[in-house]
């Protein structure tokens, strides 16, 4: 019974690759969420800045 339990524990210790992939996936998802939040938050302000510069140089009107 004890050798079988040791074998099972050793087999589980070597399989960390799946957990690492999940952790990296969660990290990428979190970074993407932050980027989307920043773009949504600052998007109108950046558009306003570009519109102001465009109007100052006499460019084509923004849509």
Brief sketch in words of this structure:
By secondary structure, the protein is an all-alpha fold. It is built from 2 helices and no strands.
E-strand count: 0
Mean pLDDT: 81
Q: Span between N and C termini? A: 74 Å
- What would the principal axes of the Cα set say about the shape? rod-shaped
Helix-strand topology string: HH
Query: What is the share of helical residues?
Result: over 70%
Backbone structural class: mainly alpha
What does the main sheet amount to?
A: none
Q: Which oligomeric form is depicted?
A: single chain
What's the total helix number? 2
Q: Number of folding domains?
A: 1
Poorly predicted residue ranges = none
Proportion of β residues? under 5%
Radius of gyration: 26 Å
Explain this structure.
With 63 residues, the chain is mainly α. The chain has one domain. It is 84% helix and 0% strand. The protein is built from two helices and no strands. It is rod-shaped and about 85 Å long. The model has no long low-confidence stretch (mean pLDDT 81).
Can you give keywords for this protein?
63 residues; mainly alpha; 84% helix
Produce the secondary structure layout.
Layout: H1 2-13, H2 17-57
């Amino acid at each position: 019974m004890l050798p079988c339990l040791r074998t099972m524990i050793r087999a589980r210790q070597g399989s960390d690759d799946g957990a690492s992939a999940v952790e990296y996936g969660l990290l990428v998802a979190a970074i993407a969420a932050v980027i989307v939040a920043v773009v949504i938050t600052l998007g109108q302000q950046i558009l306003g800045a570009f519109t102001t510069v465009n109007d100052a140089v006499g460019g084509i009107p923004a849509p």
